[in-house]
Amino acid sequence: MSVASKLLGNGKDGPLGQRLLRTLSANKERFTGNEEDMLFLMSMVQSSDFQALMGVQQTLALKKQRAAEMAEEDMASPEAVTAEAGELLTEVSDMIFHSGVRRNSKEAKLLTILSSPHFHGVMAAHDKVARQEYSSSADWRTLVASTSAEPSNLGDGGDEADGKGDGTKTIRLQKIANQPLGATVKIRQTDKAVVVGRVLHGSLAHQSGMLHSGDEIMAINARNVSGLNVDQVVDLVKAAREFIDFRLKIQPADLAVSHAAEECRITVRAQFDYDPRSDNLNPCREAGMVFNRGELLTVVSQADPRWWQARRLDSRGHLLAGLIPGPLERQRREAIKKRKGEHRLSLEKPRRRSWGGARKRAKGYATTGRDDPDDAIDFASYEEVARMLPKHREPRPLILIGAAGVGCTQVQDYLVQTHRHLYGRVRPTSTMVMRGSVSSQYEHVSIRDMLDNIAQNKFVEYSRVGNHWFGTSLASITRVQRAGRTCVLHVVPKTLRAMRVAEIKPFVIFLAPPNLERLRAKLRYRDSQSIVRSHRLDEELSTMVAASAKMEKIYGHYFDLRMVHEEVEATVARIDDAMERVRTEENWVPADWVRNTSQKDSLID
Length: 605
Known about the structure:
seven-stranded antiparallel beta sheet; six-stranded antiparallel beta sheet; about 600 residues
């Protein structure tokens, strides 16, 4: 065995440095050189530094040997635990956010890290490797940012400079199949420069962290884009094969810092229907998101006050956000629509004078004394919501809404009579002196007290009939709640705006009638009166269906649940099931309700 073989060995004869020292001592008589050189070599080998280096070398050799042995035993490549790390990251971020994160807390810092585009980029790269997506063929829209954004000549030639020293930088994006770029371009009107219009949250461009809204594009793949229109710029991007290089003008520091403040995360309930495919004013209809009234959306960017970016709350695994009109855009459109309507009415006014006077309001009706909510309903857009835990000691009141003739009062009576241990009703307040058994159903007060209480906003609704006042007080609702029962109310729709406050926290159910054909079929089976009577009933049904549709259109964004009411027993059973979920599960409610509840002080007994 040679000296070198003895020196390396297999590690069983002790540390490598000590074995080297023993080998030198055993072969000392074979040494033919200067004795001083031998002594120097022996002293160097005996030094602690040399012994430590030999220990490191031996450790590395052993690990390499073990790795080779393991590779021989198992030639299979390691498998990822999951290929949906990006989806898991989104779920964890949403859980932390909706748990009520306090500012500057550890949870808030963790959420900031998990929400950063670089962290999302790492997870996206992990999922691509886990799915073994190594193909270089892709559509032009499927781009991902590279790891470098330093000024350099990444192009394949041409007359473009490399960006060094001229206030520009070059970034490289690689095409990845079936993943959209998520960025738009536009021509700036002031100087006709090509700029990035917007970057969609969750897209590959956003995850790269290198492309931002407002970035000025100087060149694409070493081709100057000055003077090109939007279609020509898109064609340049389409022509790219595996990589695409953007040469960007470096932005001022203050503008670059502002990108960090563009993102937000709030959950809202949509209060209108929207389809970008039929919206000619949408700046990028392909990036728009379809949603219906009542859907929960997570808003992730309000950088553009007119066009927010959002995704559905239940969009599992779908990180790409879509464009939705912001409240500012909604108000602008409704204002234009209102001006057009006023202009049309002014043109039609001379022709309408012969049809009689103006529409008369119902006599003797008053609401809460606040502004008529109809003016605000036109601009209904989104309502910020948050999760609220149920409170068993204070059940949320139930409000039934429906057009005249639908049967709300009948449902209310049957619900309270058959479920007395769960539901109760209020004692209305009146200035009229009642007689007989009816008097116990009302709380009598003087007109002066009634007006004083109205002035102090102690009534959720009130009305005047002739010389007498009637109303529902907040105290009467609270008494039913403190008894552990759900207070069932049937109010007019105009009061919903005033009643949907943190002090009441109602759950609103809208009872809609069946369609007109269904009602007519039921009428034919039941009615045995004259043809004139049947015709009059048919007109009443048509009026009820139309009134219900109009009510839902105007006040539908206040409804928590919509039910088609046909049979009382079936409707009450469905209402009871819904209220059971309200009593036992987390509810999405207006965020102000949760904030106001958390800010209240608790009495220490």
